[in-house]
Amino acid sequence: MPVLIVLILYIDIKQKVGMKNIMVKMFRKLCAFVPLCLCASLRTSVPFRRGFTLVELMLVMGVIVILMTLLFPVVIGMKDKARKKQALAEAHAIVLALKGYRMEYGKWPNQTQAGGDTTYFTNNHKIIQPLIGHHPRENPRGKVFLSLQQSNQTDTVTNFTDPWGSPYVICLDENADGDCMIDFTNIVYANIFANTIYAYSATNYLIADMEAVAASFANTTNATLAAPFEIETWSEPQ
């Protein structure tokens, strides 16, 4: 029975996770140390069924622990990669929604001046709400430019947050000079997952030749201009 369990774990892990050749070789070497006496429990000719010995149980548990140790970094890496992919897709969706809104109304949502660009971070709900059709004054026709999926996160004031629990940074070219200037300093925010307060800054962060941009600090905390955005829309193909 222990050998059968080990074989099932080996087949399942190899199919679902796609272990590298080196992991497969390491697992085979581990299996080579399993005592041959374990096979006796599989024989049907034995008139009685004996229980597992302490040594057998410890051996199987040791193999499982080693496998979990090898696979843990792989699983964490896959999860982080999925979050980055989701964040980039959502950031692009925000930019497309902003451009659609501007084509419909001839201005940006919540635009009140044209003297300089406006950056939204912990107040991005001011433009997200019109985009999703929940702001009668800014979106009187009730059109939906941005659809939030069930997996999307919003905080207590309906800021649109990234998969790590911090709001998306959104900047609009309100002075129509063809560039976006992200500018905010020491903005504190309590992460909705960790409930920990972090400070963020991006002073005079210029993105050339862009009318609307969106970005995420990803898993970076207490970020400043020296730590560039890990997820952003301006270096991606338009």
Can you characterise this structure?
The protein has 238 residues and is an alpha+beta fold. The protein is 36% helix and 17% strand. It is built from four helices and eight strands. It has helices at 2-16, 21-31, 54-105, 125-131; strands at residues 118-120, 153-154, 160-161, 169-172, 180-190, 197-207, 212-216, 231-232. The strands form three sheets. Strands 1-4-7-8 form a four-stranded antiparallel sheet, covered by helices on one side. Strands 2-3 form a two-stranded antiparallel ribbon. Strands 5-6 form a two-stranded antiparallel ribbon. It is elongated. The N and C termini lie far apart (57 Å).
Arithmetic mean pLDDT: 78
Helix content: 25-40%
What is the makeup of the main sheet?
Answer: 4 strands, antiparallel
Q: Uncertain runs with pLDDT below 50, 5 residues or more?
A: 1-17, 33-46
Shape: elongated
Strand line-up of the largest beta sheet: 1-4-7-8
Distance between the termini: 57 Å
Q: How many separate helices? A: 4
Radius of gyration: 27 Å
Proportion of strand residues: 15-25%
Compressed to H and E, one letter per element, the order equals HHHEHEEEEEEE
Structural class: alpha+beta
| Number of DSSP strand runs | 8
